[in-house]
Design goal:
Blueprint (H helix, E strand, L loop, with lengths): L5 E4 L4 E4 L7 E4 L2 H21 L19
Antiparallel strand pairs: 1-2, 2-3
Length: 70
Amino acid sequence: MKYLIVIEKSKTGYSAYSPDLPGCVSTGNTIEETEQSMREAISFHLDGLKEEGYEIPNPTSRSSYIEIAA
């Protein structure tokens, strides 16, 4: 499955979350580190859902950029 993640700059590095997986978040010092950490967090999150007998949510979030003249 392919989940959208949102990466945001923070005061100390970067943070990330997935809109399709509430509560699944991660941080890192670089964008690359944050992406890798988020991969691990998603895997851990999905394993936890499976162990508890919950359904794995299908990815539904999408992203796009809108260009606006400023």
